């Protein structure tokens, strides 16, 4: 889950002028646009839980094929060699992923 924020000039229909807008993206999708001058906010209809679900689902679905490919090789030594690496890199990746997700969630909740 990635949360990106940028500041850019956009036309504000309330200020009737080009003003600095604070734009935030969730997983590359437009999430929120706020005029820095009048604080008018446009929130996109983006469900955080749905985004998270889609992301987790993608991960879960991509896993069995990756595992079975290693089994398909029928090269037991290769698999055993690959195993410790998997054990070491997975928790790190998982922690990184969870931290990113937590950050994104905090930012969205803080904006509401
Ligand atoms: Zn404005």
TrEMBL record:
Q: Highest taxon of the source?
A: Bacteria
The name of this protein is Bh protein
* Organism from which the protein derives: Bacillus mesophilum
């Amino acid at each position: 889950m990635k949360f990106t924020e940028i500041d850019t000039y956009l036309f504000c229909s309330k200020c009737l002028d080009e003003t600095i807008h604070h734009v935030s993206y969730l997983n590359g999708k437009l999430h929120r646009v706020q005029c820095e001058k009048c604080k008018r906010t446009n929130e996109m209809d983006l469900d955080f839980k749905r985004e998270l679900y889609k992301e987790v689902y993608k991960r879960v679905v991509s896993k069995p094929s990756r595992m079975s490919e290693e089994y398909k090789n029928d090269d037991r030594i290769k698999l055993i060699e690959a195993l410790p690496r998997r054990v070491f890199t997975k928790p790190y990746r998982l922690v990184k992923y969870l931290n990113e997700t937590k950050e994104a969630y905090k930012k969205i909740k803080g904006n509401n």
